[in-house]
Design brief:
- By secondary structure, the protein is an alpha/beta fold.
- It contains 18 helices and 9 strands.
- The protein folds into 2 domains: 210 residues, HAD superfamily/HAD-like (Rossmann fold, 3-Layer(aba) Sandwich); 185 residues, no CATH class.
- It is 53% helix and 13% strand.
- The strands form 2 sheets. It has a 7-stranded mixed β-sheet, sandwiched between helices. A two-stranded antiparallel sheet has the order 8-9.
- The longest helix is centred in the last third of the chain and has 24 residues.
């Protein structure tokens, strides 16, 4: 292989995403500022604010911080498992390594680069006055196409062409570099990169090595782990929420109970991130979450609880029950089958496999048939599995039941 430079996005690839400011730095600021930072982040995610505007408004809320305080919070962030070993292997093959962060302080990215023996490091530059952060930031990374500008500078310095370069990233902010690298690897990517990347890696970071060393992803059989089985059991057990609705209580009562569980889970996740144990919930998360997820806020169960509770509140009972069946049985088995599948991925979403969709479709139809006539059950199953394999910006635990339920509700037969 003729690759000489590997560019790593930092957050979400080498370090947990959304960990530094929302969970570490924000411990020491008023709750009002913390909530404002969350709102700004959401506005960026939905495309209302640009990256530069978002970061400037976020960092403005941290005015008065000392460099020592910033670094104390940064040191609490663990590396993604396998990051150090992966970069060590790449350096042994004489690759140049560049770390580019669009939101973390450059001074700390340089420290990280030194720890990992990386060659280049770029991030946000903080401005200080009299030893304290004055609320202002600068640097190429926060500007439109700033990462691309940095990539071009590195290529010029190293006398490289795009054919010599590989990018490993997780979100759409890195699309600007796509035309200027030969291989684009999406690591646990967002919905945009699932479509645009040449390869999608959803497991450990060292799974990028076969792509770089052999020119192809590793096709060895995936072994279902205990975590996978626990996640599957939890996902499919959601179908049992229908039973008390039918025989014991009203659907809205069960919906309220599920929403309450979702709130308790959210509290438990904040506690876990801060190193505190929340009875029952934290232990379940530790057993069910992927290794890489344990260093981040695991949000999927929140969307899952909403995906079960909301249909019970807004759809007719037979349709609500069928959407729960499609979500819990169809989506759950599609996900686990996709992991062990040897069939092709979809060109519009390389994180999903055709075999997973087919298995999910079968069980979604069986589950929905318990509450709907066969034709309508098949329609619901098809809709649910289409949504499951499409790259949506919103978690499919929420989109599958809501969109499916809406279409089934307005369908006349």
């Amino acid at each position: 292989m003729n690759y000489k430079l590997i560019i790593f996005d930092v957050e979400g690839v080498l370090l947990p995403k959304w960990r530094y400011i929302p969970f570490e730095v924000s411990r020491n600021i008023p709750i009002s500022k913390f909530l404002w930072i969350l709102i700004i982040g959401i506005l960026y995610e939905i495309g209302v604010l640009s990256l530069e505007t978002t970061l400037k408004r976020v960092y403005k809320n941290l005015k008065g911080y000392t460099l020592k305080a910033f670094y104390q919070d940064f040191k609490k962030i663990p590396l993604i498992p396998g990051a150090k070993e992966t970069i060590k292997r790449l350096k042994e093959k004489n690759y140049k390594i560049a770390l580019i962060s669009s939101s973390l302080p450059e001074i700390f990215i340089k420290k990280l680069a030194k720890e990992l023996n990386a060659d280049y490091a770029f991030g946000v530059k903080l401005k200080f006055s009299r030893g304290k952060f004055n609320g202002e930031i600068e640097g190429d990374v926060i500007k439109k196409n700033g990462k691309l500008l940095i990539l071009k500078k590195i290529q010029k310095t190293e006398n490289l062409t795009p054919k010599n370069c590989v990018l490993v990233a997780d979100d759409r902010n890195n699309l600007q570099m796509f035309p200027y690298v030969d291989i684009k690897i999406g690591f646990n990517p967002d919905f945009v990169l699932s479509t645009k990347a040449d390869y999608v890696i959803t497991g450990e970071l060292n799974n990028i090595l076969p792509i770089l060393f052999k020119g192809k992803s590793d096709k060895r059989s995936y072994k279902i782990s205990r975590n996978d089985l626990i996640r599957l059991i939890i996902h499919m057990s959601g179908f049992l929420t229908v039973v008390p609705c039918i025989y014991l209580t009203q659907p809205y009562v069960m919906a309220v109970l599920i929403l309450a569980m979702g709130v308790l889970y959210m509290i438990s996740e904040f506690a876990r991130i801060y190193g505190k144990n929340f009875p029952l919930f934290s232990s379940i998360t530790l057993k069910a979450a992927k290794t890489s997820e344990l260093y981040e806020f695991v949000s999927a169960p929140i969307f899952y609880s909403l995906g079960i509770a909301l249909p019970l509140l807004i759809f007719p009972t037979n349709i609500a029950y069928s959407t729960i069946a499609i979500l819990t049985l169809g989506d759950g088995l599609a996900a686990i089958t996709g992991k062990i599948s040897s069939m092709a991925t979809y060109p519009f979403n390389k994180a999903k496999h055709i075999e997973g969709t087919l298995v999910g479709l079968l069980f979604a139809f069986i589950g929905a048939s318990l509450f709907l006539n066969p034709t309508k059950a098949l329609l619901g199953a098809v809709i649910g599995m289409i949504i499951e394999c499409l790259p949506f910006p919103i978690n499919d635990n929420l989109t599958i039941p809501l969109i499916t339920g809406l279409i089934l509700t307005v369908t006349p037969f």
